[in-house]
Amino acid sequence: MKPFVPSLDPENSKLDVVQVDDRVFALCADKIPLNNSGFIVGDDAVLVVDSLITQKRAIEIQEIISSATNIPIRYLVNTNYHGDHTFGNFWFPRDCKIIAHHYTRQSMCDLDREKSHIKKAMGRAGDDISNIIWRTPDITFDTSLDIDLGNIIVQLKHYGRGNTRGDIIIYIPGSKIAFTGNMVIGSGLIPSVLEGNADSYLSTLVAFKSDIPVNKIISGHGEINDSSQLDRHIDYLFYLNEELSNDISPTAKIHERFINGREYSGNIGMEIHPYHQLIQSIHEGNVKMCLEMRESNRRAMSNE
Ligand SMILES: [Zn+2]
């Protein structure tokens, strides 16, 4: 079966402003799973979360911010390297510093390859990314970085490999809000083991959970959630690992719990979750990725 590719085409959609706290705003796409952004307003500086997928979207973010505050945008943080989070970088002011994990900067090296991935998800609007110049981060870090925006501290944290190897969390300790990019995806969705294995992804999420208390999670895609979304991600990866390592066909329990949308989607009851096809496709990709990873590890071991 051909994998289901969700549309990330931002045409005919907009970003809704959700004030999550005094100084913390989520910019939520009005269609799931289109990308979300957000911003945090200090006394001296504004920090933006991800620049999104096109020039138009990057400008939309800045217009929303300038209608909300006169404080200048000084920082733009990329939660991972994917084009849907970074292609808008170029359209932020030159004096706005772009910050990311050093692996994210390293991964921003093959624009043609990334464009062709994104084009598949953009469909008709693929042309909107033909003019992309990939502006890479000015500042990188390894495990953590604190930024003082003026009376509000924002912490950037890296806990290990997640959906990409440079995934980071943007955390506001004062209000216990976390922007999680693709590492913890929004309500109803499951994590995508795109570039690694379920094992390391699980350790990353457990490290995140044990390090900081979280009240609210604003994901790179999907609805805003509380910390239970992190627990569900941990559960899913735990079951995926367990079934793969016991050589059980990784479907039974996982389908029951996560795919058919009962436990996972909370209040939706017996109905099939609206993102069922997407969840199913992410899950199939995860199983394939993990089995390939295991096979290549096995081969490497037997060659030693
Ligand atoms: Zn994404």
Tell me what you see in this structure.
By secondary structure, the chain is of the alpha/beta class. The chain has a single domain, classed as Ribonuclease Z/Hydroxyacylglutathione hydrolase-like (Metallo-beta-lactamase, Chain A, 4-Layer Sandwich). The chain is built from 8 helices and 12 strands. It has helices at residues 55-68, 83-86, 102-107, 111-122, 198-211, 228-245, 252-259, 276-303, and strands at residues 15-21, 24-29, 37-41, 46-49, 73-77, 97-101, 139-141, 144-148, 153-157, 169-172, 177-181, 216-219. The strands form 2 sheets. A 7-stranded mixed β-sheet has the order 1-2-3-4-5-6-7. A hairpin with a 4-residue loop joins strand 3 and strand 4 (46-49). It starts with 14 loop residues before the first strand and ends with a helix. The model is unreliable at 261-271 (pLDDT under 50). The structure holds zinc ion.
